[in-house]
What does this fold into?
Amino acid sequence: MVRAAVIAAVLAFAAASGVARAEEGMWTFDNFPAAAVKAKYGVTIDQPWLDRVRGAAVRLSTGCSASVVSGQGLVLTNHHCASDCIQSLSTAKLDLTRAGYSAVARRDEKACPGMQAEILISISDVTARVSNAFVGKTGRDYVRARDAEVAAVEKEACAGKEATQRCQVLTLYQGGQYKLYTYRKYADVRLVFAPEFQMAFFGGDPDNFNFPRYDLDFSFVRLYENGQPATTPAHLGWNPGAPKAGEPVFVAGNPGSTQRQLTTEQLVSLRDFALPNTLLQLSELRGRYVGYAQLGPEQARLVNHELFSIENSFKAFRGQFQTLLDDRFIAAKRTADAALKAKVAADPALARDIGDPWVEIARAQAPRAALYDAFTLVEGRAGYGSNLYAYARTLVRGAQERAKPNGERLPEFTDSRLPLVEKNLLDAEPVTPGIERLDIEFWLTKVREYLTADAPETKALLGRDSPEAIARRLTASKLADPAVRRALWTGGLAAVQASTDPMIRYVLQTDPVARVLRQRYESEVSGPTDRAAEAIARARFAAYGASVYPDATFSLRLSYGAVEGWTFNGKTVEPFTRLGGLFERATGQPPFDLPQRWLDAKGRLDLDTVFDIASSNDIIGGNSGSPLIDAQGRVVGAIFDGNIHSLGGAYGYDPVLNRAVAVSTAAITEALVKVYDNQALVKELTGG
Amino acid sequence: MVRAAVIAAVLAFAAASGVARAEEGMWTFDNFPAAAVKAKYGVTIDQPWLDRVRGAAVRLSTGCSASVVSGQGLVLTNHHCASDCIQSLSTAKLDLTRAGYSAVARRDEKACPGMQAEILISISDVTARVSNAFVGKTGRDYVRARDAEVAAVEKEACAGKEATQRCQVLTLYQGGQYKLYTYRKYADVRLVFAPEFQMAFFGGDPDNFNFPRYDLDFSFVRLYENGQPATTPAHLGWNPGAPKAGEPVFVAGNPGSTQRQLTTEQLVSLRDFALPNTLLQLSELRGRYVGYAQLGPEQARLVNHELFSIENSFKAFRGQFQTLLDDRFIAAKRTADAALKAKVAADPALARDIGDPWVEIARAQAPRAALYDAFTLVEGRAGYGSNLYAYARTLVRGAQERAKPNGERLPEFTDSRLPLVEKNLLDAEPVTPGIERLDIEFWLTKVREYLTADAPETKALLGRDSPEAIARRLTASKLADPAVRRALWTGGLAAVQASTDPMIRYVLQTDPVARVLRQRYESEVSGPTDRAAEAIARARFAAYGASVYPDATFSLRLSYGAVEGWTFNGKTVEPFTRLGGLFERATGQPPFDLPQRWLDAKGRLDLDTVFDIASSNDIIGGNSGSPLIDAQGRVVGAIFDGNIHSLGGAYGYDPVLNRAVAVSTAAITEALVKVYDNQALVKELTGG
It folds into this structure.
C-alpha cells in the first residue's frame, strides 16, 4: 500500500526541480519556508513565533521529542517516550505501567533514570571550519580529521558552560552543512503523570501505525534544576479545544532519520542486506521476548517496554523494506539521481569540482556488503540490548578513550559527549538477569549464525564456548550496581584493567576485534561514502539552491501541514477519532481492553471529544512526543505515530497519503478532568 | 555468495539453448540423458541399471528420500528424515533422540507413526487425457476440470490394488506433461537404527548447509508387510568403501521443489512478498520455539524436531531470498524469458497457439499479492503446525468432502489420497499441549498482524477474542487421542457436526472463510497461472525439444555428477572430510560436543575414514536420504545436505559451486562396527 504513493512522490521529486512540494519537508528553524505557508494557508510565521516554539521544543535523550507546556517546566510527551522511565520506577508490587502514575505533590515527581531534556538555544554555521579540516583527505583519515574538528568545535563552544549547556555539531545534507547547535540542557527530568499503558497503547501492535486510532499516548514530565522546577526559554500555551479539519498545524520536533537523499546504490544495499537482516534478527528476538513474557506475569511486566520497542521497530522497518522492494521505486530513484547528474554535467566548472561521487558511493557498496554483518553484529549492535554489556563497553572504552587527547577519541567519548555518557552509565536502573542472558545468548548465536562458526570474529567472541555458556557466565557480572560502575568509571583504565568482573573481562578481551572492524568500516565504507555524499550535497545546492531541507538527523525541525484525512482505494478516512469510538472498539480482550477506571467513567465523558488526529505533517520516528501546534502557537496535540503509508516516508513524502497521528489536548484534558480527576495539572496547563 | 554463481548459471541458460549443461538436471527415469553421461564419464547407464535403481529408490511420505539396501526391506535414509519418528517413540525417561536407537532383534523394530514408503513401479503418459478435460476452460473451472480428471485417472489406475499401490498423477513441466506414477507402497515402516542426534547433526544449525561437514546423518528403517520384512522390487548393493575424487556418482531421489521455469514476474512476487513474509514469520516462530525450549530439558526435548525443521527451512529460504534480491539475477531471468518469447514470435503457427502466457502470468501477480497473506495464513498455513488443528481440519473437511463424488472433492481428499490421509490421521503420535498452544497463538497473532485487526478474515477467526484466549480454549481439545479421531472419522459428517470438541467446533465455524479464500485464489491466481504455464511449457518443448528436465515436484529423479569440491574466492574446498576432523572440530560445547561413546571409541577408529562427501549432483530439499550411487549401482552414501551455494539451486544450478553433501557408507560402516558394535546390521548390509 505504501509503495505506489512513495513512488509517485519520488517521481514527482525527480521530474520537478528537487524542491520540496506541498507539505513535504522537515525544515530547520533557520530555513523555514514561511512564505510558502503564508501562500497556502494565509498564516504568518514570523521570527517571534519561531523563537517561542523553538524555546519550548524539547529533545529527550531517550530518542523522543516533547514540549514545555507551563511556566514551571512541565513537559508534554508520549507515554511511550517515558515508558522506559515508568518501567524503571516500577516494581513487582507496584507496576506503574499497568496502573499509571499521578504525582500528588511535587515531591512525588520521580526522577527518570537516563533521561535528559535539551532545548535548542542557538544555531551557527561551522561548515567552513569543519570542511577545512578534512580537505584533501580520504578514507579513515577523512573521518578522523572531521571528527577531531567537530570535537574541538563542540568543546570550545561550550567551554565553561558544560553544566547547563550541550554543544553539538550536526551534519546536515549528508555533509553539505555542519551546524553548531547549542542546547540548554536539563539532566533532572521527573515523571509527573502517566495514564495506564493499556490506554496509551490501546489496540497494541495490531493497531500500531494504523488509523482510525484510539490511543491516549501521552505523559507529563517536569524539568528540574537545583532541585526546583526549571524555568525554560519559553513554553507553549495549552489549547484544550481540538483543531478543525483543514486547519493548518505545525510540528516542532526531532525526526530521527530519513534516507531521502541517498543514492540508488545505497538504497539497494538497504534492500539487499541491511533491512532484511535487521528485520529477520528483530523478528527472532521478538519471538524470544514473547517466550520470556510467557514465563509469568512478572516476566511479562519486566519485558513490556523492550517488547514494545522491538515490535514498533519491526513494523516501521518492514514498511520501509516493502517500499524498497518495489522495482518502480528503485527506478524512480535512478531517475532522480540521473536528473541531478545531468545538471552537474551541464555545468563544466561544477562538474570539475564535484567529480563523480555517485561512482565512489557505488564502489563502497561491495565492501559494505562484505563487512555489514560483522560490523553490525560485533560493533554496532554488540550485546544486542544487554545493559550489562553496554555498561561494560562504556567503562572499557570510556577508560581507554579518556586517556587520549580529545581530538583522537572515538566521537562518542569526546569531552562534549561525556556528561550524557556519564549520566546514562551512572543513573540507577533495574537490570533483569533473565533478560540480560536472553540478549547475550541471542547476540552470540546470531554472530555465529551470520558470520559462520569458523569466522575469526566468531572465534574471538566465542572461543570454544557456546553462546549459552558465555551468557550464563557473563550474567554473573556485578555491573547492575551503580556503585560498582561509578568506582570503575572514576578509577579509569587502571581500575578497569584490574577488574575481575566477568563482563569487564569479556569486553577487555573481545573489544579489539570490534575496534578493528570499525576502523575497516571507516576506511572502506563510511569514509568514502561520507566524502562522496558531501560532494553530492554541493551538487544539490548548486542545482536547487537552499530550497531543500536536510534528511532527518534527530535535530530540531519544523513541519507544516493541515488536519486532514486521506482517501485510499476509494475509501476515505476522516482525520479525527472521538472518545466514543474507543468504547466501540473495546472488546474486553487485550490489547483491546479498557482499564476499569475508564469503563466506570464512560457515563461522565463527552464521547464526542476529539481523541486522535491525523494531519499531513511530514514526520518520522523521533518525532514521537512532538507538539502539534496551531497557527497561534498553542499546543493542540502530541504526535505519537504515523499512518501505515507514512512508513515509506523514510525515502519520500507523499502528500496524498502520508499522515502524522497525534493525541489531542482535548482528549488529554477530558481525561485529566473526568477520569483521572487531576485538577492541579489542568490548572497548571490552562493557567486557570 | 550464492548469487553470482546462480546468475552465471542463469545467464548461460539464457544465452544457450535452454538445454541443461554439465551436471545440471533432475531427470525423470523415462528421460535420463545416458548418452551425455557416457560421453563425459565413459559410464554406461542402461535400462537394467535404471530399473534396479528405480526399484530400490524410496520416497518417504514424510518428505524425504531413501533406498532399500538389503533383501529384507532394510532402508537407508537420514537421521533427520526419521527424527520425527524417533521423537515420537521417545518419552521423558527414554529419549531416543539423545541416546540413539538400535533394535537388538526384529521385534524391537518400532513402527514409525505417519511414515509410508513408496517405490515407483511404472510411469505412463496421461497428458492427452488430462488436457482434453480442461480444454477451453479458464480460472477456477480450469482447476476443477483438471483436478477431477486427475482424480479419475488415479482412481481407475489403482482400482482393486489400493491396499498395496498408490497411483499419483504428477504435473511435470508446470503442466506441460501429466504422468501417472504408480507406486508400490509400504505403510508399515519401522525404526531399526539411529545414532545420537548429536552425531547426526554435529555442528547444528551453524554448520547446516556448510562444508567441510562432520555429520553422521543416517538412520535405518525397515519396510514391513503383513508383519514381516517386505520384499521390494530391488535393492542396492552396499559399498563400504568411499568413492574417489572425480569418480562419477548418481543420486536417485525425490527433490521437493524448484522454481527454475517460473517467469520473472513470478520470481519477483516470491522476492517481494512470499519469501520475506515467510522468512519473517519463521524467524519469529523460531524465537518462540527457542523460548519454549528454554523452559526446561523436557521442553527442549519435546521441541527438538520442530525447532530443527524451522531452522533448516529458514536457512534454505534465506539463501533463496538472497538470490532473488540480486538485480542481476532478475535481469538474467528476463533475458531468458525474452529468448523463449523470441523463439515463439519467430514461428507464427506456434505464436498463434501459445498466445502471450507471460502477460497472463504477469496479470495474476496483482491478485496474488492482494490475496497472499490471507490465503497463506487462513488456508495454506492454517494452524501453523498445530497437530490438533490439522487433525480437526482433516476431520471436518474429510467428512464434508467424502460426502461428495470423487471428482468434486478437494484434491487432497480424492479416493486415491484417502489411505495416506487416514494413516496420518489415525496413527498414534504424541501431542504436546504447550506446543499446540504456542502454535495456535502464534498463528492467530500473525493473522491479526498481517491482515489487520479489522479484516473480515481476522474477525472470522478471532471474533472478539484474543489469540491467547482462543489458544487456551482450543488446547482443551481431546483430538490428541487417536480413538477420538477414529470415531469422528468413521462417524463422518454427522459425528463431526455433533461433536462438542472445541477444536472441531472452531474449525466447523471458521473453515468456510478459508474455503472462500481458496476458491478466490484458484479463480484469480492459480487457475490463470497454471493455464499460462502450460502454454509456456509447450513453447519450451517446441523450442528446445525433450532435452529439458521438469522442475522438481517431489517425484523420483536421477541426477549425475562427480565427487568434487569447489573453489570460491580463491579458496579450494576438498570433496571429503574424514573421521579425524570430527574430533578436531569438537569443542565439548553444544552443538560441537560428542557423545561419550564416540570419545571413548576414538582410539579404535580409523581416523582416515571418509566421513562426508561433496559431489556435483543437482539436488534440493526432498533429496534428503537419497542414495549416492556409484557407477556399479552400489550405494556409497546418503545425501543429507547441500553446500551454501546450493541454496540458489531453487532457481538455477551452477556447476562451479553447487554441491550436494552426503554421509559416506564408509563412515556408517566404521561407526556400526567400531562404535555401535552392531555386527548384525553390517552383516545384513554387506551380505557377509
Observations:
- Chain A is about 50% helix and 15% strand.
- Chain A touches chain B through 46 residues (CB under 8 Å).
- The longest strand of chain A covers residues 177-186.
- The mean pLDDT of chain A is 95.
